[in-house]
Amino acid sequence: MKFHKSATTILAIALSLIVLPLAGCDSNAPIKEEKASADKRLQATTTIRTMFDKAHGKYDALSTEDKATLDKVTGGAENSKKAFSLIR
């Protein structure tokens, strides 16, 4: 049986519409993971900026509690101080 070029194209498209969803290619899992990661980065950035504004850009002006919160987000006092210097 000989197919025309257009029939072969239609068959290929039809098969891809059936096979790709079965293979998980239309899964939203990667999108959800990317969104969760982006949301986490946004929250960290918001926390850093809030603390920066609260202390008027001076890490040492933060309360002990605020330093602990900021250091948890940035991974330590060194990173917090570096973040503050980058914002200036």
Detail the topology: elements first, then pairings:
Elements: H1 5-22, H2 29-54, H3 64-74, H4 77-87
Helix pairs in contact: 2-3, 3-4
Main attributes?
88 residues; mainly alpha; 75% helix; rod-shaped
Give an overview in words.
- The structure is a single chain.
- This protein has 88 residues and is mostly helical.
- Helix content is 75%, strand content 0%.
- The protein contains four helices and no strands.
- Helix 2 (29-54) packs antiparallel against helix 3 (64-74).
- It starts with a helix and ends with a helix.
- The relative contact order is 0.09.
- The mean pLDDT is 83.
Content of β-strand = under 5%
Largest sheet: none
Oligomer status:
single chain
Pick out the low-confidence regions: none
Helix content range of the residues, please? over 70%
What is the first-to-last residue Cα distance?
A: 72 Å
Estimated structural class: mainly alpha
**Strands, count:** 0
What is the rounded Rg? 25 Å
DSSP helical segment count: 4
Q: What's the rounded overall pLDDT mean?
A: 83
Summarize the structure.
The chain has 88 residues and is mainly α.
